[in-house]
What we know:
Elements: E1 7-13, H1 20-28, E2 35-41, H2 48-58, E3 62-66, H3 72-83, E4 88-91, E5 97-98, H4 102-112, E6 118-126, E7 132-136, H5 142-148, E8 160-162, H6 163-169, H7 179-189, E9 194-206, H8 212-215, H9 217-236, H10 246-252, H11 257-275, H12 279-292, H13 294-312
Parallel strand pairs: 1-2, 1-4, 2-3, 6-9
Antiparallel strand pairs: 4-8, 5-9, 6-7, 6-8
Amino acid sequence: MSNSKLVSVIIPTxxxxxxxxxxxxxxxxxxxxxxEIIIVDDCSSDKTFEKLKKLAKQDxxxxxxxxxxxxxxxxxxxxxxxxxxxxxxxxxxxxxxSDKDRIEKQIEYLEKNQEIALVGNSVKNIDRKNxxxxxxxxxxxxxKLKKLAxxxxxVLHIWAxxxxxxxxxxxxxxxPYVEDYDFLLRMITSGYKFSNLENYYGYSVRFRQGNTTTTxxxxxxxxxxxxxxxxxxxxxxxxKLDSFNEEKFLEFIKxxxxxxxxxxKSQKKLEKVFKEKNKVKKIFFLLxxxxxxxxxxxxxxRRMLFxxxxxxx
Length: 313
């Protein structure tokens, strides 16, 4: 396809020294060449930034920035957005891998489907050594995705979107842990549609100790509830507005120390469920996990509903 339209790839980074070269390399080597790569490092304490400086010298399409203080994900993403100039915005994480035709596939889809404002794709799940241990399929039909959004994020954050969507929604709101989910819900409120390349597994999501996939805990569960609460408010409002307030959000997701300790114990029990081969012991560990933490129960129920409902549609 034509590479005539500029695509801005935004990459927030923080302490990913072991993976950053492969992640950025997978973007540099895309078949879609008309890209700018906006990388914002959020005060990494390892060698991430040093490696990024070397990469920036090798490819003039890279624009490298570094926060003066640790701003966290939402502000870092918005900083990258302000520096971008592309007609399309593509998300990329600093520890993942994009297949070489990922951007080409996503932009081609958006060019052919003008009614769709944002598109993701199905993914491969990999470990620290790039071994694929599973895949996750995301459906394409918007009506189904809108229903699935009740239980979880229907499009993974590694999407490609039209710039106008980001401008309309004024970027990401300060709702860490679920900023992408909140973005999608606000898209629905504003009348935008999104989709997935259902049968294209062009992105590898890395699972490792210490990244956001494994460390969000109770705060993420409560943040999800807050984003849903804001969505329901907008549905009932004539002007489609909600009462979002950063201070109120932080108050909403506060966790008492006792609940946190229970959740950590519960999480350890849940980890045994996936490692255990004996079915009776699996059930035992699962019940123990649920009993220990009401938040774990909420998370498990929501994930089960997402999977069950996703299979039905």
